[in-house]
Amino acid sequence: MVVINEEDNREKSLNFLEEIIEDSLAHGEKRVQTRFPPEPNGYLHIGHAKSICLNFGLAKKYGGQCNLRFDDTNPVKEDTEYVDSIKEDIQWLGFQWANEFYASDYFDQLYLWAVELIRKGKAYVDDQTQEQIRLNRGTVNQPGVESPWRNRTVEENLDLFERMKNGEFPDGSKVLRAKIDMSHPNMLFRDPIMYRIIHADHHRTGNRWCIYPMYDYAHGQCDSIERITHSICTLEFDVHRPLYDWFIQELGIYPSHQYEFARLNLTHTVMSKRKLLQLVQNEIVSGWDDPRMPTICALRRKGYTPASIRAFADKVGVAKRDNVIDLSLLEFCVREDLNKTAQRRMAVVRPLKVVITNYPEGKTEYFEAVNNPEDESAGKRSVPFSREIYIESTDFMETPPPKYYRLAPGAEVRLRYSYLICCEEVIKDSDGNVTELRCTYDPMSGNGSSSDGRRVKGVIHWVSVKDAKEAEVRFYSNLFLKEDPNDVEDGKTFLDYLNPESKVVSKVFVEPSLAESSIGDKFQFERVGYFCVDPDTTPEKIVFNRTVELKDSWAKKSK
Ligand code: ATP
Ligand code: MG
Nearest CA to 386 among 465, 450, 444, 448? Predict the structure, then answer.
């Protein structure tokens, strides 16, 4: 199911998480404490942005707090590079955490609690291999088989667990498991693993630990330590919730509660960090911030604004069932925001030279251009005009269809901010390709009028040949052709659905005022789209990324 915009069909009522929070506040809860718990094993993507907006947004709405907690329980995959990028991305989105915590801050406490569970006879050290444990877990229809080590004495378990911690055993040789029920209908309850041995350097605790807690054992207890009132996570964790509650109850600690919402999926996009890492490692993209990636740093580089991503998260709403959001909704949001905030400029993408035969040679005139019709405070700039200009080759047709209001032999158009010109002659090369147009201009038409009051319908953009700057533009489209690249046919992988034309680089001519722009500046190239100055820009060459297309009404109509 593709939901374009659920919100529009909905009354502006509370979402189900807001209902839960209001209900808990009405029943004695005094505060709202949420957390955003990323694992620092990759860069954040637009799905995480949804979760960030939700966790920080709910805390803000109800006068509470949101913590940032790095879920750093697997030293093999995690790195400070990711920690730094995650912090940068959250702040860029416009949120500030109340506290910065790390699951690794709680390793001592988690260890003590594990010892407590051993003492209560609720945990044991198992010597089975990972493979044996998996095979003995049973199936949904078949109970599991109890481990031969399940009935070790408390003393033996305490001794072995301590020696696990002290580094006496190699990776994979032992685990600590909760002792629950090997025939439990919820497979997660069949003696879940609490700790495994990993001899690896941790990005914060170095080599102090060689046993690391599993997600199910760590997450609820971390929430409890931080006295999280509403622990919000994605739907796939709903089967984990009873286990989350079980550990908290057995330990008799602060009862945090978990609530699930549907994760964000987008058409033509993969979101799993594992797949994104593959795109980076196979050099299919230039890095985590390649503008075709769904990561926050990539969207930033592409020209997305924090406000547009927040608006998107808001429009998507919170659902209880999985769905796929159309990528065009994200594009709609950035277009709406940039329409209000981006300055207008002229740039010609497929240049066709026009010589204005009755305009004096060597003369330059300057026309005033409004920077942003949506924002008076953006002011004006002047745009040079001369005898030779470039127009878009798609703005000329030799034999135009009816209602074509652009340039054609004998037809007249207005040059944006400037004169009316009329096409008198078409120059072609030996293959019959149009290489140049000869036009005349109406000298009385420079202020938006004409010599005799006549009006023309077409307005086209242009740049002065001798004043224009050459720039590089990178046009991006969907990285995947398939609507759901995660849905793979037999023998294929998601990489078989890549769009070979997801990045097209071309040379363009832009008006000279753009030479002054800085990295990250955003513009609307009139009639072309929204563009953002890329960090690859050098003093010699400006590089633009296309953020999003404008809607082309002509292309729509002529379909
Ligand atoms: P991935 O599957 O992409 O590796 P993850 O869930 O393992 O993502 P975490 O770093 O553990 O990544 O996620 C941090 C938080 O962001 C979690 O609470 C998770 O539920 C949430 N989150 C991750 N992906 C999405 C998504 N697509 N939509 C909404 N929330 C998400
Ligand atoms: Mg995760």
Answer: 465
Ligand 1 atom closest to the Cα of residue 234 is 20
Q: Using DSSP bridges, classify how beta strands 434-441 and 351-356 pair: parallel, antiparallel or unpaired.
A: parallel
Is 273 among the residues known to form the active site? yes
**195: DSSP letter:** E
Q: What is the DSSP track for 339-388?
A: HHHPEEE-EESSEEEEEETTSPTT--EEEEEES-TT-GGG-EEEEEE-SE
Compute the distance from residue 217 Cα to the ligand 2 centre, in Å: 14
Name the residue among 157, 132, 164 with its Cα closest to residue 146: 132
Give the C-alpha separation, 514 to 88, whole Å: 28
**469 tagged catalytic:** no
Say yes or no to pLDDT of 301 above 70. Answer: yes
- Cβ(307) – ligand 1 distance below 6 Å: no
pLDDT of residue 161: 98
- The model's confidence at residue 451, banded by pLDDT at 50, 70 and 90, is confident
Please identify, by atom number, the ligand 1 atom nearest to the C-alpha of residue 44.
10
pLDDT digits (tens, 9 = 90+) for 502-547: 999 999 999 999 999 999 999 999 999 999 999 999 999 999 999 9
- 83 CA → ligand 1 middle, Å: 15
Give the residue, by CA position, lying nearest to ligand 1 atom 1: 272
User: 460 has which bridge partners?
Assistant: 415
In this prediction the pTM is 0.92
The DSSP letter of residue 6 is G
Which of 48, 58, 235 has most ligand 1 atoms within 8 Å of its beta carbon, as the pocket-test mutant?
48
DSSP run (H or E) holding 126: strand 123-126
**pLDDT tens column, 149-198:** 999 999 999 999 999 999 999 999 999 999 999 999 999 999 999 999 99
The DSSP line for 7-41 is GGGS-S---HHHHHHHHHHHTT----EEEE---SS
178's enclosing H/E stretch is strand 175-178
263 an active-site residue? yes
Q: Which residues contact 278 (CB under 8 A, 6 or more apart)?
A: 284, 495
With a pLDDT cut of 70, the percent of the chain lying above it is 96
Q: Tokens 């030279």 sit at which residue?
A: 353
Whether the pLDDT of residue 7 is over 80: the answer is: no
**Quick one: which atom of ligand 1 is closest to the CA of 237?**
20
Tokens of 380: 């004006």
